[in-house]
Known about the structure:
alpha/beta, 19 helices
Amino acid sequence: MSDDRTSAxxxxxxxxxxxxxxxxxxxxxxxxxxxxVDQRGSLKLIASENYASPAVLLTMxxxxxDKYAEGTIGHRFYAGCQNVxxxxxxxxxxxxxxxxxxxxYVQPHSGIDANLVAFWSILAHRVETPALERxxxxxxxxxxxxxxxxxxxxxxxxxxxxMSLDAGGHLTHGFRPNxxxxxxxxxxxxxxxxxxxxxxxxxxxxxxEFKPLVIVAGYSAYPRRVNFAKxxxxxxxxxxxxxxxxxxxxxxxxxxxxxxxEDPVPHAHVTTTTTHKSLRGPRGGMVLAQExxxxxxxxxxxxxxxxxxxxxMAAKAVALAEARRLEFRTYxxxxxxxxxxxAAGFLSRGANLVTGGTDNHLVLLDVSxxxxxxRQAESALLDAGVVTNRNSVPRDPNGAWYTSGIRLGxxxxxxxxxxHDEFDAVAELIVHVLQNTQPGTTKDGRPSRASYTLGEGVAxxxxxxxxxxxxxxxxxxxxxxx
Length: 482
Ligand code: DSN
């Protein structure tokens, strides 16, 4: 279908949908309209966000939302799931083929859910099933009270080694306050204090000493590629299951920017992802697995998850079909090229980047050289229409709330068509804001980590310069809600 025809149909669909919504709750219709205005008018640099296509968005607004479908394809706890079976089968087929994965599970509602399904499938495969075999039981209901208590103790005392939050790992990789840090005895690996890079020898040494059941690789704020073949060697040496969380860079895997040792899927026993970041689908999660883990992953719902969101699984199928097109490879490569341009733009203006640069989709800017915390920088940038999120840097003196960094990603603006020159200009605008932001003081005159003053006229100047670029690369061109 031509782009013009798609825009005309999308405009008409949304105009009518908003009219129907407004007839029930006008404030929601207005907030929906305003969200588009805001997203169109700002520089979206949150590394975990993107803009899904109209086809993906429209797929979510249907009566599939009304259907319960606990269970799995062809084996549901509810009647009347024949169309959900079609949706889930198509989404899983696209996922398997796109990622060359033996098995795909498309039900998780989010990345955290996907990781929980992965953890429980690993515990089931590595701990529960061998225990049942040892005890001569078919399932846990057949166990005596004493054996059941013993198995619960065994399940609750396994070890997990994951990347620490301040080195760029995710909360669910064993961070103590998160459930993953409570389900498992956990230890964390970090990055080299000098270079900020992963030190595989140090990870291996920790794994040899700790002997984890699970090693988690993958990241949310590490601006470099990971050698997953090496991570698998480490896992194999200590008898661990390798789980990779590729939520942030799934689009780069799908688009064949990360191949060979950098493609996690052939190396990991279980790979998890979200579908809405660089993969550019609906908000949701997914688990890919080697055959030996498939049956346990398949029990995700109802053992770990509530009923699948069939309308979102349908949108995952549409997004995965888009990601299988050749144009998606061009998009994925442009994400990585644009991150290089953004990093080079910062470095040429004297800013400090964690690891000194990037080779994936994100840049982690250390804002302490501007005399600011991440929180002050994030707020000042937002005033100027630049949407980012504050993020810890390794060994961050300001902790996880105020932080010393700003995380910036290129997937969203790349979707809008930004290229090298625009990302260089974005770096200049960001440096201009930070250079003109003064940290504030608390009521009793001490340095504040939250308040700040942005120089007069800075926000307006940056917004004007951004507007010119944003108008050149409109979001959902032709979509008119007037
Ligand atoms: N919220 C995601 C991110 O921003 O990286 C991870 O949970």
